[in-house]
Each structure stands twice: as structure tokens, then as C-alpha cells.
Design brief:
By secondary structure, this protein is α+β, with helices and mostly antiparallel strands. 37% of the residues lie in helices and 33% in strands. The chain has one helix and four strands; from the N terminus they run ββαββ. The strands form two sheets. A two-stranded antiparallel ribbon has the order 1-2. The protein has a two-stranded antiparallel sheet with strand order 3-4.
Length: 83
């Protein structure tokens, strides 16, 4: 099929469709990687941690591609009784 596949009942796969799928795959890989780092850090520190809500935004300016990754990492910072 090449790079121009079909999806959703035979409609053409557009560049925007491919970009959105790439962003979702990137966000999932990012979340998986951070979750592994959080698990390793949790084992080393004894603090419970989790990673949620990973996202990836793909944009471009002129001829430069920009990837913005974000996630919520719960339990990363150590706390004391009053903070």
C-alpha cells in the first residue's frame, strides 16, 4: 500500500491522519518510558510514583519540526511533614 493507506471504510489516509497517529504512538512510547523510569526510581527511593496523561504535540515552524512532550509524574518530589 505504500505510505498512502486507507482507513475508516476506504477513505484515503491523509498526511494529517498519519501525523495524528504518529503523535499518539510517540505519546504512548513516552509514557511507557517514563513509567519505567518512575518504577525504577520508586524502587530506589521507596516513594510511590506514577506517570499519567502523557501527550505529544507535533508542529513545525518554517522548515523546523517541533515535538512537545508532557506528562504528569506523581510522587517525584520528596515531601516532608509540613510540605
Amino acid at each position: 500500500m505504500g505510505t498512502q493507506g486507507t482507513h475508516r471504510a476506504g477513505t484515503r489516509d491523509t498526511p494529517l491522519d498519519r501525523e495524528r497517529r504518529a503523535g499518539r504512538r510517540l505519546a504512548q512510547r513516552f509514557q511507557d518510558r517514563l513509567a519505567n523510569v518512575a518504577a525504577t526510581t520508586e524502587n530506589r527511593t521507596g516513594r510511590e510514583m506514577s506517570v499519567q496523561s502523557a501527550s505529544a504535540e507535533l508542529t513545525s515552524e518554517a522548515s523546523t519540526g517541533i515535538v512537545e512532550l508532557s506528562a504528569q509524574w506523581h510522587g517525584l518530589g520528596a515531601t516532608t511533614d509540613d510540605r
